[in-house]
Amino acid sequence: MRTPIPHLALGLPVSSPDPAEAGQNENASAEDDASVEAQGSALIALVQQDPERGATELFRRFSVSVNQLVLHITGGDAEHDDVVQSVFCTLMNTIQHVREPEKLAAWVRAVAVNAALQQLRKQRFRRLFLKRLPEANATRSFVQDVEARDLLRRAHRVLDRLPPRERVVFVLHHVEAQTLASIAETCGYSVPTAKRRLARANRRFQQLVEHEPELSELVRERSRGGKRK
Amino acid sequence: MTPEQFSKAYADALPAVTRAQLRAQEARLLASQRARSLHRTEPWRWRAAATALMLAALIALSLDLASVVPRPLDGVASGSRELSAQMAGRAAVAGALLTAGDAPTRSEIAFSEGTRVLLQPHSTLRLAQLGPERVDLELVQGKLEARVHKHTGLRWTIAAGPFAVHVVGTEFTLAYDAERAWLRVEVTEGRVRVTGPTGITPEVVLDPGGRFESAESPAPAPPPVAATPSASQAAPAPPLPLATLEPQRTDRLRTADDAAPRKATFRTRVAWQSLARAGDYVSALRVARRSGVDEQLQALSAQDLLLFADSARLAGEPELAEHAYLALRRSFAGSAEGRVAAFSLGRLAAEVTHDEPRALRWFEAFLAESPVGELAAGARARLMQLYASSGELRLAAAVARDYLAHDPAGPHAASAAALVARAAAASEPAP
Q1: What is the pLDDT of residues B160-217, one digit of tens each?
Q2: Of A5, A209, A211, Cβ closest to residue B6
Q3: ∠ CA B64-B66-B71, rounded to 5°
Q4: Residues 51..70 of A with a Cβ closer than 8 Å to B: which?
Q5: Does the model's ipTM exceed the 0.90 cut?
Q6: pTM for the whole thing?
Q7: Taking CA atoms, what residue in B is nearest to A70?
Q8: Does A49 touch chain B (CB under 8 A)?
Q9: How far apart are CA A216 and CA B6, in angstroms?
Q10: Do A205 and B22 touch (CB under 8 A)?
Q11: CA gap A12, A178 in Å, rounded
Q12: How far apart are CA B190 and CA B149, in angstroms?
């Protein structure tokens, strides 16, 4: 029996709208910059001295946010676990290059977003040659709520048509509730670029959902508390 | 639907990452770290690990191959191969009429060979035949989702009114409305074949992601045999005679009034509407042109005409889109689709042809016809923007006030308020 972790019930936004607070989710004592820096430095040193213990610590501290971020961006891709694994392998291989330990959480987010973006591009490339992709975990579980599966299938149909970068910005802003400044920092853009991409993604999204009246209906039904007509 | 509403519903619907999944991820990460450290320090150990890994892969491959080989039905001696089904822990026999009540949860029907069917509330399914070689079900009314177990050698057919869905081994959703003789099939995995009212041709083969939706019957279809009297009974119903399925379909075939027109509609809808609904607008347009749809727009229904026009717009053919939207306005003036066409014409003029006066006229026409509704806020926002960019501050402010009155928390509320304030400041006499 698979037991969901309460704080990972992924409908609830874990990231805070405020980028400063987002750091607090990763580090319990984020209010104190010195403490955050000390924690970051200690973790980096641990990874370098004892990779096994360092990997365990790194995973325990960031697994929740990385899983959530990847899941939101890729939408429960069938290769979700592979993407998460690649994120942590990248973190382990490159952690010695982190120059500002107090920004460790932001750096982890950036690596996760980058891995998710690569995955979206891979999916897009595969779609050119394959008639079908391995189905997302989100819709594989047969016992899951049928309406939720229906909604996800249609939502993926819309999200899959957004260009990967626009999709990332769209998800970070609307699902992860990140500010433009935070998105710009995570993705390595300037704030105006992030703003422009978000506006374009919103526009494209509106055009796409106009042709998915059933999706609109499902969303409305769910927002009314899942009551059936 | 706003991005915020969408995002909330999307995040709610996504599955939760489980503790087991996290534990597996952590173990995998640690294993990779151990392999790396072994590789760095003692190459022979790494080679031993690689050999073990290869052996494990070979074993996994052989197990995988074994799973592909057809197996006898679970829990059934290979000699008899009788199939059984259960619903809510009670056995259901061939001929039983299974009805899902009005409880919000779906009723699951489990077949002994592994197939599972989820019946939505208020849906009725008949187990017409449960034979050793074939299974015939009939969706009398409602919606079901099925995952048919592969490689059992069974032939599955699900009839729905005059339609029949032939399954190989797949996962799909089937919805049927007996009153309208309307069917929708959506395939998630595998392949199904849908046959139409004639029972033979035309037929449609659906691959993963494929969707078929029948045209609605103009007149209500005859009620399904034996469905009504026992539809409210709790499952399982008393056994009914086997194979009631075929005679029913044959009866429908003999009512030949609608056979010919329905056949034609069937083929056309599958050809381009399905492609358009799946988002492949270019292909939809190509197929529609091949069948001469673009030259006979007046023959299309309002929904199809709107779908065609939208496809043309999204496929990058604004002239054809405009032509179709105008045809829709002419043929179906006053309809919901006709009103949407006004909005789309405004958007075409504003975004594609950059004809601002024309865009203004269409958006105003749309708002005059549809002052409230989903698109109204978008039309007001665009009008506001168009007036402001053309220097008509007073008119822009009037639209902005209208916007704020209708949608005070809308995505453009801040811009509208700013515009109103700007207009008020401009109208104040200079000190």
Answers
A1: 877 888 886 678 888 887 767 778 888 877 788 887 764 444 577 787 777 787 765 4
A2: A209
A3: 130
A4: 51-52, 55-56, 59-60, 63, 67-68
A5: no
A6: 0.40
A7: B17
A8: no
A9: 8
A10: no
A11: 14
A12: 11
